[in-house]
Amino acid sequence: MTPHHKSHSAQPSTQNKIKAEASLATVVKHLWPYIWPSDRGDLKARVLGALALLFAAKFVTIAVPYSFKWATDMLTEGKTDLPLPVILAGPVALTVVYTALRVSMQFFTQARDALFAAVAMNAVRRIANEVFVHLHQLSLRFHLERKTGGLTRVLERGREAIQQIVRMSMLTGAPTVVEFALILGVFFFQFDWRYALTVIVMIAAYLKFTTIATDWRISIRRNMNESDTDANTKAIDSLLNYETVKYFGAEAREAARYDRSMERYERNSVSSYVSLAVLNSGQGLIFSIGLMVVMILCINGIRNGTNTIGDFVLINAMMIQLYQPLNFMGMVYREIKQAVIDIEMMFDILGQNPEIKDKPDAPALQVDRAAVAFEDVHFAYDPNRQILKGVSFVVPAGRTLAIVGPSGAGKSTLSRLLFRFYAPQKGRITIDGQDIASVTQTSLRDAIGMVPQDTVLFNDTIGYNIRYGRWNATDAEVEEAARSAQIDDFIKSVPNGYKAQVGERGLKLSGGEKQRVAIARTILKSPPILILDEATSALDTFTEREIQVALDRVSQGRTTLVIAHRLSTIINADEILVLDKGEIVERGRHEELLELGGVYRAMWNRQREVDAAQEALRRAAEEEGKSVRVEIEA
Ligand SMILES: Nc1ncnc2c1ncn2[C@@H]1O[C@H](COP(=O)(O)OP(=O)(O)OP(=O)(O)O)[C@@H](O)[C@H]1O
Ligand SMILES: [Mg+2]
Known about the structure:
The structure is a single chain. This protein is of the alpha/beta class. The chain has helices at residues 3-35, 41-76, 84-137, 140-145, 148-190, 193-240, 242-247, 251-303, 309-351, 411-418, 441-446, 462-467, 475-484, 488-493, 511-525, 541-555, 590-596, 599-623, and strands spanning 372-379, 388-395, 400-404, 426-431, 434-435, 448-451, 529-533, 559-563, 575-580, 583-588. It folds into three domains: 20-351, ABC transporter transmembrane region fold, CATH 1.20.1560.10; 359-447 and 530-634, Rossmann fold (3-Layer(aba) Sandwich), CATH 3.40.50; 452-526, P-loop containing nucleotide triphosphate hydrolases (Rossmann fold, 3-Layer(aba) Sandwich). It is built from 18 helices and ten strands. The strands form two sheets. A six-stranded mixed beta sheet has the order 6-7-8-3-9-10, sandwiched between helices. It has a four-stranded antiparallel beta sheet with strand order 2-1-4-5, with helices on one face. A hairpin with a 2-residue loop joins strand 9 (575-580) and strand 10 (583-588). Helix 1 packs across helix 9 (309-351) and helix 6 (193-240) runs parallel beside helix 9. The longest helix has 54 residues, at 84-137. It is elongated. It binds adenosine-5'-triphosphate (ATP) and magnesium ion. The site of magnesium ion has 4 residues, from helix 10.
């Protein structure tokens, strides 16, 4: 391992290690309400039923070797002190009993598992759902920093781990403890203390070895998980960037990067298998030595007449029977410890406090006329880099305010603050005089329609994506919204129309089409406040005009904040702010700003030149009889 690798993985590992110690209790505490759910009498009944079956199975388990022993004693005719009914029944009947007991042992065990499955799966579902809901509560910041691929893996492994831990502890751990107790009793009373002592020593050695070996394996497994997550993240990231990879002909580089991660995974997986082999062999050795000792003790007993051949058979059968749960015991420890790690990563996420939280008893936003005000807003994503430096403005009810300015000035940031994805460090934002930080997020977001700069769509149909704006909208309303957003012609032109799939993140649609879908769904939502973040990418004049018509229509009568890249679209805005490096450097109406002769005027002139050139090109193309859509970077 290179030093670089080491420094990379050392920190989370040590962190995990410290936590893993104290965490089984925490995990059990966390899980308990799901296994014994107060509101589900049926599930509790299942837990009790499973427990009853558990004890039944274990008593039968002990009875099985006994029937075997009695049959053996009868056949060897060394029997003297057998219970009378046993002698009357004879060896054939005993063998039938033996079979029946074996069958019922298995039946009880399987019935218990089946009964308990509903409890375990209910717990899995409820926790997975809770985590999912929580993920949506966590801030945009969390999601931007977190890798989605890694996150889904954490969820997936956490889910498996819960299933594992619930089943392990309830279906294997508890039964094995019961069986130990029963077997120890038999060894002590049927044989003598030396037998019981041997079993105790053997089990103690076995468990000690198992825990030590398992702890060693856990660190290996943790590295394996980390490299697995890493490889997955790389693969997903690379595939999401499919187009970029092609632009730069970087397939080989991407493959090499992926392969480096997979190589780590390969190495760690091999160690994991090797260590498993070591563990299993060690366990087998310890057990076999214990088995040998009790069998030798028994042979001596037979020689000096205290034991029968049946006892020899009994002790062997019982020990062999013990091997399976004992082996499970190791697995229980292993799996529970591993599951704790996986579950912890999931609980870590559950434990993350949402950065933006509703205040206790926060009232709902009361929207009257929807006047929006920013008052001396300061904001930084990162404390080291101030993005907004005291921005103040008012959007009177029903008016349109436009914000323009160079890329990176902080325009989209303003919209994220109004939507309360982040909270300003200083200053406040109000709607109809109410600070948005003191009302519920739901009511705030209900009042705002957002057409983001880059629209990402759900990997479903166009109709689904439009209807997202208002779930109970009728087909007619969806179509009406599509018409207002100038996208209905496009939808009619594609095969399948509203049922056409848009592809992952909406990649099958062009930027302009995606944006019109976003506009349509916002029209459906019909909020009193509207934020329109114009796409930066240059759209052709035709599409741009279409979108403009759509936007004008939506913004009518609503308080609107337009973030504009195309100045021609905001000539009629009630006020225009020019934002530069987080400060408002100019403000006024279009004509006023032109007269001012500052930044705005310069931007306007430049854009007019571009527009003129674009227009000329279009005309030239039209004259040639072609209707070509010309795109020019602004
Ligand atoms: N999540 C984030 N974490 C850290 N910095 C960010 C984050 N989002 C944006 N920034 C930074 O904040 C600055 C303002 O970003 P913003 O998106 O508001 O710019 P913009 O004015 O909308 O630009 P554009 O015209 O290109 O859309 C940028 O320099 C950007 O790098
Ligand atoms: Mg932006």
